[in-house]
G-protein coupled receptors family 1 profile domain-containing protein (Zonotrichia albicollis), 358 residues
Amino acid sequence: MSSSSTESLEVEPSTFYDYYDSYYDAPKLCSKEGVRRFAASFLPVLYSLVFLVGLAGNILVIVVLFKYKRLRSMTDVYLLNLAISDLLFVLSLPFWSYFTVDQWVFGTPWCKIISWIYLVGFYSGIFFIMLMSIDRYLAIVRAVLSLKARTTFHGFITSLVVWLVALSASVPELVFRESFNEHNFTTCKPRFTGNFTTWKLFSTLEVNILGLLIPFIIMTFCYSMIIKTLVHCRNDKKNKAVKMIFVVMIVFFFFWTPYNIVIFLQLLEFMGVIKDCQVSRNLDYAFQVTEILGLFHCCLNPVIYFFMGEKFKKYLKMLFKNWQLPGYFCKWCGVHITYHTESTSSFHTQSTGDQDAL
């Protein structure tokens, strides 16, 4: 992740952390010193912020899931895996943060492992958001079918498939990533064998197709059918459910579509379609902005999928009530929390109504 920006001679669209490759590989007539200074000044701070917020939020999700939900539904399984994906995503940030202000000092093994872990978290996170869309579709549109399909067992099976796909899609990082000295600067980037252009084209299309196109098609279908069903359904919670659906879709595509557009433009630059130096620099800045935008999405996942649900708000209050430090802090701040006692079984209803758990 280290500040990855576009390059004039080399573009690394499949990951977010090759800005320095771009800088050192760029033609000398097209100076990108300003882009490098911008990256070194702002990216470490933003990476650190995403790391702290994402780490705390997703760990809290996992704690509450295991303590109260006990993984008794397909939704619980997907929430857990989404939180794990986001944790993988953010755990690599301290390494890339250091890389933005210095150089890669962790060696080739960690270069491969950190790059691989990051990309696995990236793909798996998007895939689990897609699975949660399918889960909602089954619960609301195919309510009868969902009684058999939306089980914990099926949740674990589909989750396993998602992890296998994410691991497979990230294998090139393990194979080609290396740490080596270039222009008196130790970097961590791929060393492609064979046709370099083909691998660049493949990596860009892989991110665009797996990271945006396929999820876009599936989520659009699921949510359009959900909205159509809810509009024709007399339900007091209809407006809230529709609002939640729009939040999920809009946030997902707002945070990830700009990144995919930028890396596609980077590919055009790499292939020589875009040759203007100022455009190249603008793409560098755009890459850094869209990179951070995508990173912040993993911090919002706990809010979108967890804390906006009424049931999970109750779980969170219960957790804070039993945890002395947060409880003391709330009392010290003058915040009064009202706790509602509900039987455990009431939290685990497997019906279309469990959608407000999200």
Summary: The beta strands are 177-182, 185-190.
